[in-house]
Each structure stands twice: as structure tokens, then as C-alpha cells.
Design brief:
27% strand; 2 domains; six-stranded mixed β-sheet; 16 strands; 9 helices; alpha+beta; Rossmann fold
Length: 333
């Protein structure tokens, strides 16, 4: 588990300290303060192969790599160079994290003369394990973090992939009922979910059974329905230790957010997952706070990014601070 995060010379951050980091972390702040940049920094810190590096431009933003998972020439000017503060390529970005009962982990980002992105990872502690990864090469073994992570963007994923994901997630005993209960938060009329390939189609899909005469494909059940099905299926299948979620509340009606947070909290605890998510929504923040107030350890933190003079700083609100801020009507987004 990551306990604190330090980011230097990365995008708009001169030096950003985020702590204490909890199991569930919600990142808020005004536009262009770096919410998504924190997810990108964590992505780079935890990755361990060049395919993950090549996929980053299209993971949270509109830039897209080539069909082979490699950056295009335009990506260097439109994406990679913007990872460096003020586009100064000699200001080397450094991302660091303190981890529970483990050594600290650091990542340096550099761009070579041939527009080649290069990352260097190192763990400091009882054992020092250097690891390097480039856009077109993977050198030195495995990232010393040894941490599987998953990145979920605000865009909907491929329905066929989601169907296979649900199929895997629902197979173990009890998971089908668990997923049904989690998704019923957004559609109370839901009676059953079924993975099937119907006549006249070319690939399987997940179908939702409600009080209606005929089942409907989940692609027709709304963005929020599809988003939660993907999220909870991934949490049960991926075995990821860290999940990065951009704009968590997109497509979700505010009134159901408390129940959604209860589902996220329960699955994250059961599967030992740490979550970092961004939000623009006060309702999402309040719902998370109310959910974790019900738990004995309140393993949740809101990290609000704000501009102080010419720098961006992170203010981390704990249970007491967030309670006072919400009751006083203070801005927490």
C-alpha cells in the first residue's frame, strides 16, 4: 500500500506532496490543477513494461498511440513533452512513493535525442533494484514495486471485452450474486445478468433481465450501468493492487453515490485494492465521506489540489476536517 506520494517537475507540479494516502483516495480541485496528472504519475511509477508506456497517451486523455501500442511521432510533441514542467526537458520529473512495510519507490522520466521516452525505477531500502523501461525496449527485469495496477478512463470500454470480463468475474461461486447486488444499486428492477451470444450477432454480450418482456444488452442500459459493471468486474477479476479511476462520478446519478461507495469500499477491502480516483462532484465527495463514516477505520482521504501563488499544492482532508468543511458549506471540490 502506498502511504505517501511526491511528484517533482511533472506537468504543472514543481513539487507536490500527497499524504497521508489511504486505501481509498479521492482527488479534487479546480480545472487544470493536475487531478489527472496524479493518475498519470502513479501509472508511470507502477508500470513495468513498454506496452503500458506506449498506451499512456490514450488512457486518460484524447491523444492516441499507434495501433501497435507505440507512440506516434506527434505524441512526443502533443503529449510526452508536456509531462515536463513548463516543457523544459532538462527539468527531470521524479515521482516517489513511500510504501507500507516496504522500501520507497522512485521513477525518473527522460526524453532522449531520438525522441525516446525513458523511465528509470529504483527501490530504496534493504534491497536496491534498478529497472529501466523505454518506449521500444524493456531492460533490467521487473519494476521493484511488483505491483499490478489497472487504469480506468472516463470513457466507456469495449462492450465485447466487458462481456468477457463479466463472464470471468461471475464464474467463481457467489460472484454472480455479488455483482447482481452491486449493479442493482443503479437499476433496482434488475433480476438477472446473463452472458450470451444471441442469433444474428457475431460476439457475446451481457444482457440485463428486468421486469420487461425481453432482456436488453447492457450497452442500452445507460452509461452508469455499463461503467459500474466494468468497474466491479475488474475489481473482482484483475487482481490489481492499485486501481486508477478518472472522473469516477461520470454517468452516475448523485442520489445513488452513497450505495456505490459502499460497494467500492467493500470490494476494495475484500480484494485488498488501493484506489485513486478523480472527481469534480461535491456530491461524490460527500457520499464518500458519509460512507466511510460508517466504517471503524475511515480508510479514506480527500486530496484537494489548489493554487498557492504560482504553485499547486495538495491539501489532504481527514475525517474531522472534511466533516467541518461539509457542514460549513466550504468548497471541497
Amino acid at each position: 500500500m502506498i502511504q505517501s506520494l511526491t511528484i517533482e517537475n511533472f506537468r504543472g507540479f514543481e513539487r507536490l506532496n500527497v499524504k497521508p494516502v489511504k486505501r481509498i483516495n479521492l482527488i479534487a480541485g479546480e480545472n487544470n490543477t493536475g487531478k489527472t496528472a496524479i493518475l498519470e504519475a502513479l501509472y508511470l511509477l507502477l508500470l513495468n513494461d513498454s506496452n503500458q508506456l506506449g498506451a499512456l497517451p490514450s488512457t486518460f486523455r484524447s491523444a492516441s498511440p499507434s495501433g501497435h501500442g507505440m507512440p506516434t511521432p506527434d505524441d512526443f510533441k502533443n503529449f510526452w513533452e508536456f509531462l515536463f514542467r513548463d516543457n523544459e526537458l532538462d527539468l527531470v520529473p521524479i515521482i516517489g512513493a513511500e510504501r507500507a512495510r516496504e522500501s520507497a519507490l522512485f521513477c525518473r522520466i527522460e526524453i532522449g535525442k531520438q525522441q525516446n521516452v525513458s523511465l528509470s525505477h529504483q527501490a530504496q531500502g534493504p534491497q536496491i533494484s534498478p529497472f529501466s523501461v523505454r518506449v521500444n525496449a524493456c531492460v533490467g527485469g521487473h519494476n521493484p514495486a511488483q505491483c499490478k495496477f489497472l487504469a480506468l478512463s472516463s470513457r466507456l470500454s469495449d462492450p465485447a471485452r466487458d462481456a468477457e470480463l463479466y463472464n470471468q468475474a461471475s464464474l467463481p461461486g457467489g460472484n454472480e450474486e455479488k455483482l447482481l447486488g452491486l449493479i442493482k444499486v443503479i437499476e433496482p428492477r434488475l433480476e438477472k445478468l446473463r452472458y450470451a451470444k444471441i442469433p444474428g450477432t457475431t460476439q457475446p454480450m451481457v444482457y440485463a433481465y428486468t421486469s420487461r418482456k425481453n432482456p436488453i444488452p447492457v450497452t442500452q442500459a445507460g452509461q452508469g450501468f455499463s461503467k459500474l459493471l466494468t468497474l466491479f468486474s475488474e475489481m473482482l477479476v484483475s487482481k490489481a493492487q492499485v486501481i486508477l479511476i478518472d472522473e469516477l462520478e461520470n454517468g452516475l446519478y448523485y442520489a445513488i453515490l452513497p450505495e456505490i461507495w459502499r460497494g467500492i469500499a467493500a470490494v476494495a477491502e475484500a480484494e485488498n485494492i488501493q484506489i485513486f480516483a478523480t472527481t469534480h462532484s461535491r456530491e461524490c465527495i460527500v457520499a464518500a465521506h458519509e460512507c466511510f463514516k460508517e466504517t471503524p477505520d475511515y480508510n479514506f482521504a480527500l486530496h484537494r489540489l489548489q493554487r498557492v501563488k504560482d504553485r499547486i499544492e495538495a491539501v489532504s482532508l481527514d475525517k474531522g476536517m472534511l466533516e467541518v468543511a461539509i457542514k460549513s458549506g466550504l468548497e471541497v471540490r
